[in-house]
Amino acid sequence: METWDSLNQTIINCRQCPRLVAWRELVAMVRKRAYREQEYWGKPVPGFGDRQARVLVVGLAPGAHGANRTGRMFTGDGSGEFLYRALHQAGFANQPQSISRDDGLEIEGLYISAVCRCAPPDNKPTQAEIDNCLPFLEQEIDLLQDLQGFVALGHIAFDNILRLVRQSGFAVPRLKFAHGAFYYLGENLPWLLASYHPSRQNTQTGRLTEKMFAAIWEKVRVQLMVGL
Question: Which of 24, 55, 132, 161, CA to CA, is 20 to 30 A from 183?
Answer without folding.
Answer: 132
